[in-house]
């Protein structure tokens, strides 16, 4: 996949998962755009890192939301009633997916949260 394609795909996947949890307002989209812009620079330095981009953008957005005291995406997949968020695995690699670390389960591929 070429570079613009990688970033557009990452943007679409993360936007889908933000929308799945009701976080697709203008402020969230702007935060996502910032994360994409920074990864554009990163990808320019390391074109071979293309397969890692989607998972990294998801984690970038997650980190920025944590800074705003927002947990995203909340886990709704397990029985643990204590609020906790899903994590991306692998942290650096292709085919990123959301997992609940508490229950040790895979919840959904990135871009396919419900
Ligand atoms: Zn869970």
Topology (elements, then pairings):
Blueprint lengths: L2 H18 L5 H20 L7 H15 L19 E3 L7 E4 L4 E5 L5
Antiparallel strand pairs: 1-2, 2-3
The protein binds zinc ion.
Would you give an account of this structure?
This protein is mainly alpha-helical and 114 residues long. The protein has one domain (3-109). 46% of the residues lie in helices and 11% in strands. The chain has helices at 3-20, 26-45, 53-67; strands at 87-89, 97-100, 105-109. It has a three-stranded antiparallel β-sheet with strand order 1-2-3. β2 (97-100) and β3 (105-109) form a beta hairpin. α1 (3-20) packs antiparallel against α2, α1 (3-20) crosses α3 and α2 (26-45) crosses α3 (53-67). The longest helix has 20 residues, at 26-45. The protein starts with a helix and ends in a 5-residue tail after the last strand. The mean pLDDT is 94. The site of zinc ion has 8 residues, from loops.
What is the strand tally?
A: 3
Chemical compounds bound to the protein: zinc ion
The spatial strand order of the largest sheet comes to: 1-2-3
Mean pLDDT figure: 94
Instruction: Estimate the helix proportion, in percent.
Output: 40-55%
Model regions low in confidence, pLDDT < 50 over at least 5 residues: none
> H/E element string?
HHHEEE
Strand content of the residues, in percent?
5-15%
Structural class: mainly alpha
